[in-house]
Amino acid sequence: MVAKRLRFFLLFILLFNFFINVIISLATILGVSRTGYNLFAVISASMSAIYICLRACKKTKRSEEQDDILNLPRLPNRFSFKDLKIATENFGHKIGQGGFGSVFEGKLADDTKIAVKRLEDGIIGQGRKEFLAEVETIGNLHHINVVRLIGFCAEKSHRLLVFEFMENGSLEKWIFGRTPDTVLDWQTKVKIIIDIAKGLSYLHEECRQRIAHLDIKPQNILIDKNFNAKVADFGLAKLIDRDQRELNTRMRGTIGYLAPEWLTSTITEKVDVFSFGIVVMEIVCGRKNFEHSQPEDGARLISLLQEKVKIDRLLDMVDRNEIDIQLYGEKVVEMMRLAMWCLQTNSSKRPSMSTVVMVLEGNLSLETDLDYNFFTSATLNANDHIYIAISSEINNSHLSGPR
Predict the structure, then answer these.
(1) In this structure, is residue 68 part of a structural domain?
(2) pLDDT tens digits, residue range 120-130?
(3) Which letter does DSSP use for residue 345 in this model?
(4) In the chain, which residues have pLDDT < 70?
(5) Which domain covers residue 262, as residue numbers?
(6) Distance CA 239, CA 242 (A)
(7) Which residues pair with 116 in a beta bridge?
(8) Does 311 lie in the same domain as 384?
(9) What is the mean pLDDT of the chain?
(10) Where does a domain end: 164, 198, 217?
(11) Which of the residues 38, 170, 222, 233 has an alpha carbon 20 to 30 A from that of 57?
(12) What are the distances in angstroms from CA 230 to CA 135, 155, 181, 198, 275?
């Protein structure tokens, strides 16, 4: 970079001298007074040299941007901003809104349906190189239960991500929608839970570096046309080296899904296991972790779980109108106990996601020695204000910074 700047400076000096000599010669031929043509020469030469240098700088910047791409050979498809404007009909069909930007439905020239996430200007906490490095990481994730990144756009200030289109949207509408068309039967719920577990197991244990998602919640689980569930939205994800036991990072995620160790800012991928436990309970019970509409003693799902397990009345938490689930009472209780294993306050006592998969597939027994004093904001007494204080920061978090 220093060498390039020195070359620009030398080029500027040479061009400046050249234009002065040319203009002085012209002025002499035309009989312009020396004072007049000296002033004219200096101004004209300066403007010309500056113009040429600016053009050279612009070309070099484009060259450096291209170098960024060439230095990251494993990037997925690169789209121009114009391509994506056409594909989305000028971003005319909005299908989602997140903390980092909006998602639009689109279609490529070959009729492939896509979802285009347009990151908002001003909230992108990365430079171009960091953004491309993140795209390279996400683009090389290949698992049936992880949403596939098709391509990206990093043109001028534009930052866009292009994903496979998921016909059935997010899990949120299927467990919180409460309409006849969105009621999931027990077998489908179990399949979705297994799919999420497999996706997280892949991220935590099968990639070159462990990937902590850090924002597992129903809104970030997408459902395809065959009701396969896929983990999505890696805007807050962090990489953890294989020889690195834990990670120090600022608090990030979504209120209601945060593991207790976030209060220390020293975390591992086990924070995802805790969030997974919350999501499992939401799927099984068909309600959000916190609902203002519920009576005060039942507003917090995990607090209610803590009470019901101690009196062995876990099925009280299941919607009595869901007859299908009532038929699988024993299986429902087992699933809740798996969730409780994931919700252990001590992260070392939580299972790995590969262990969770083995339990779900019937290849391993549940842990029975569990602590039922789960971490909730209610048990933190005055710590409710901590969640409120960080909510604006979390909700406006940037795309994850340099790894």
Answers:
(1) no
(2) 764 445 556 66
(3) S
(4) 1-74, 98-99, 121-130, 178, 295-298, 376-403
(5) 171-395
(6) 9
(7) 104, 162
(8) yes
(9) 80
(10) 164
(11) 38
(12) 18, 28, 21, 9, 15
Question: Cβ contacts of residue 247 below 8 Å, gap of 6+?
Answer: 212, 238, 240, 266, 267, 268
Is 215 among the catalytic positions? yes
Of these residues, 195, 215, 233, 272, which one is catalytic? 215
Are 350 and 236 in the same domain?
yes
| Measured distance CA(352)–CA(371) in Å, rounded | 17
At 194-236, the pLDDT tens digits run 999 999 999 999 998 999 999 999 999 999 999 999 999 888 8
* Angle formed by the axes of helices 186-201 and 270-285, nearest 10°: 170
What does each C-alpha distance from 291 to 176, 281, 298, 300, 304 come to in angstroms? 11, 14, 8, 7, 12
Q: Is 192 exposed, middle or buried (0-12, 13-18, 19+ CB in 10 A)?
A: buried
Give dist(CA 90, CA 26) in Å, integer: 53
Measured CA to CA, the distance from residue 302 to residue 379 in angstroms comes to: 11
pTM of the model: 0.77
Could you identify the residue written with the tokens 């953890």? Answer: 240
Give the residue from 396, 380, 399 showing the smallest Cα distance to 138: 399
DSSP 93-149: -EEEE-SSEEEEEEE-TT--EEEEEEEPTT---S-HHHHHHHHHHHHT---TTBPPE
Instruction: Provide the residue type at 116 as one letter.
Output: V
